[in-house]
Amino acid sequence: MDNKSFRQGSFQSSTSDEDMVEVAGGTLDFSMVDDVPPLDREIEEGFSSYNGGGVNRASKMMDFLEEPIPGVGTYEDFNTIDWVREKSRDRDRHREITSRSKESTWALIHRVSDAFSGWLLMLLIGLKAGALAGLIDISAHWMTDLKEGVCLNGFWYNHEHCCWNSPETTFQDRDKCPEWRTWAQLLTGKEEGGALAYVLNYFLYVLWALLFALLAVLLVRGFAPYACGSGIPEIKTILSGFIIRGYLGKWTLVIKTVTLVLAVSSGLSLGKEGPLVHVACCCGNILCHLFTKYRKNEAKRREVLSAAAAAGVSVAFGAPIGGVLFSLEEVSYYFPLKTLWRSFFAALVAAFTLRSINPFGNSRLVLFYVEFHTPWHLLELGPFILLGVFGGLWGAFFIRSNIAWCRRRKTTRLGKYPVVEVMVVTALTALLAFPNQYTRMSTSELISELFNDCGLLDSSQLCDYLNDFNSTKGDDLPDRAAGSGVQAAMWQLALALLLKAFITIFTFGMKVPSGLFIPSMAVGAIAGRLLGVAMEQLAYYHHDWAIFKSWCSPGADCITPGLYAMVGAAACLGGVTRMTVSLVVIMFELTGGLEYIVPLMAAAMTSKWVADALGREGIYDAHIRLNGYPFLEAKEEFSHKTLALDVMRPRRTNPPLTVLTQDSMTVEDMEGIISETTYSGYPVVVSRESQRLVGFILRRDLIISIESARKKQDGIVSSSIIYFTDHSPPLPPTSPSTLKLRNILDLSPFTVTDQTPMEIVVDIFRKLGLRQCLVTHNGKLLGIITKKDVLKHIAQMANQDPDSILFN
Hints:
It is built from 31 helices and 14 strands. β8 (681-685) and β9 form a beta hairpin. α8 runs antiparallel to α10 (250-265), α8 runs antiparallel to α17 (418-433) and α23 (561-577) runs parallel beside α25 (597-614). It has a 4-stranded mixed sheet. It is α/β, with parallel strands linked by helices. Mean pLDDT is 83; it is low at 1-65 and 471-475. The longest helix has 42 residues, at 105-146. The protein is elongated and about 110 Å long. It is a multi-pass membrane protein. It is found in: Cell membrane; Endosome membrane; Golgi apparatus membrane; Membrane.
């Protein structure tokens, strides 16, 4: 190629997303009378006769791209897809398959298989997501117990399974058996404890935690940097149309699966539920490559990813319906009815697969499944709403603190030492967690313990009540006085609450896979259990008070502390994520009862209202803004009175808009513009004088087409003229071959006038998924508004730094 700077400056991924523009949708008829050269019948006839005589211009004029060229219509990394173009392509493909199906039996079979392929893909995603979730659950449970000891019958047994197989296990001491040995017992050979045994167990607990965390952070850093964090902010951004190559790739899936087990087993204050959404979406993206219609269409692929996100939540909480609602409410940008059905099917298959694996041995999909039998009373709504207030306050506090810490990590030298940060936080967590039994156990086991409704045979410290068997009626235990075990557990839980609430701030966002669902639920469950036991004791000792007298008689089972723990968990999770409908459904699927929907709804709505009053963003939206992802939030309203003229580029003080003309620019001119600018697309006009709009062309398509034409079409040189018209005017016989690129020109770019209110422009960008629209004045091209311009304008109107809208 003649122009070396063009080759260097164009084929590299140098396109900035700030200037990435996209054609989408509108079909406006631009009359070009008086501006277009008169291609009437006489000139056309003269052109034909000219071509027919001696010099065959037709052989030198090629309607390029009659055959599709690899790369045309695709997207570079960190760019946004063209939703309208992708949907249009899929409609054209579907029409072609439908028309061909009438011609032969084979074509009809192809049509049927094409229609069935979506359901087959959902089946494969559900099976793979469920199998991986089962593997992660089993591995994490075993490695968590490995920090405390090992099973002599087989090192692959966790503590619970080891003692299940022991003939010497009693119901009261079901977690104690001779086959399970702590590390101190193995090293010293002594059965009894003591100071030495405690110190040995303490040391090895911290050592195992540091080893697991070190392996996790080194694997993430060395093989798949995208495997860190929760993944949900990035999934939301990808589903809105942004492209992050490798984020849903094979290496990311493998490393995320392995390091998620290591991170959870290390005892860090994080969960595996959020990252399971990322894992399921990786499965969906990889399996899309088996089917042509999903492999070659970015919009169709995002429908699959929405369903995969639902399958991820389904296996995380054992809540298929909640998973579908989570995908609809929290992560999806485009969610048609067809995707709703397929999401439900994928979530169903994933849950069924996990149930078949039975990772916890209790025939349940989660470790903390619980059933309550005591009805709640209307007067208990007061404490439930109080838990909602606590959840909202803690959610707002956590978001502000975590974002401040993550910003500090990005802007200081702290971010250069991710391994050191992970090791320090892990060491601090392990040192503080081991002395307290409620922080030493895994967070899922802690939640299970807190949700538990105490029975007569429960040996847990939380169930150490002073029993009066004379007042026991049937299976229900009456409210009883708290014993010494319950009183000691309250102090331990209060300390656990402080540790979980503060250490999670520094854990979420480190360079290891880290979910936020379980730590948030743990904080709320602890607070709820503390309040539940307080209410229970209040009702026991003061049953003659007016608030208890009408419904809580002596010897009755009035208060269920486990229910308060569940409501508190929902409140804190809602305060952090701002989920409402999907959160309530997930929680009632966990409990298996519809009776407690009202307390859950009251707590979830209260926590959202309180948290929204202190800050509008949930944790995932806050991280999207912190990372500068080009995500246009569909839930927020734009209410400022500005016009398209105020936002468009170029501004009055800037150089004029870079445009291409339809029939007067050479290959060299085009290459010069491409090498001198970083814009991702160019408007095409009739002439620079008229500025009447013809269409819009993407930079990537233009580069690929010119390079391919130079290689494959004879006579294309730097002085060859490029035409975006149907016909080219007659040229002298000595002129070089011309290049016709009308097929890659979008003739229906979306346009608005310069006086269009920005609230309408913002609405158009949200609902059509635009990346750019062109601005006209009296029918002539005036400027351009990109998605990044809209985001910067929204940030500016909210008194935020507009330059923060950059992919970081």
